[in-house]
Amino acid sequence: MASAARLAFFAVSMVLLSSVAMATDFTVGDGTGWTVDFNYTAWAEGKVFRVGDTLWFNYENTKHNVVKVNGTQFQECSFTSNNEVLSSGKDSITLKAEGKKWYVCGVANHCAARQMKLVINVETAAPAPAPTSSAHSLLSSVFGVLIVAIAPIFA
Ligand SMILES: [Cu+2]
After folding, report:
1. Of the candidates 74, 85, 61, which has an alpha carbon nearest to the alpha carbon of residue 111?
2. CA of 4 to the centre of ligand 1 (A)
3. Three-state DSSP class for 54?
């Protein structure tokens, strides 16, 4: 029984480990980065952004920046000195709350004329995923072992 109990403990540990929510890092524009004439709407399409995930903006900081704006400012490509501006060239933004987030480039006409604008919808943090198939099959096999180990006791 001792080894079966150890196996069961191991299986439960594996399931617990696999249910730790995984945060995702997104590089905006992937290999292209944050630059002019790239369709960030298309880039964001189909991606699921969740609280805890991180956006990375990679760009030449002499040519671009990242301005956090609201929906109206996003539509109009207008913002004020009150808007937060990131300008390191390698900026990370960890998504802290649900809802829409808007980012534009504040340089020249990059927002209005060169597509440097990104809107995403942030969803709740990832729910604990179902056990992965490997952990699941491990668990099943451990139950199998347990039953085999226990069955003789009741036989
Ligand atoms: Cu720009």
Report:
1. 74
2. 61
3. strand
Could you tell me the distance, in angstroms and rounded to a whole number, from the CA of residue 24 to the centre of ligand 1? 25
Domains recognised in the chain with CATH numbers? 21-126 (2.60.40.420)
Question: Which DSSP letter does residue 64 get?
Answer: -
Q: 60 C-alpha vs ligand 1 centroid, how far in Å?
A: 9
Per-residue pLDDT of the chain (155 residues; tens, 9 = 90+): 466 666 555 554 444 444 456 899 999 999 999 999 999 999 999 999 999 999 999 999 999 999 999 999 999 999 999 999 999 999 999 999 999 999 999 999 999 999 999 999 999 997 766 655 555 554 455 555 554 555 555 55
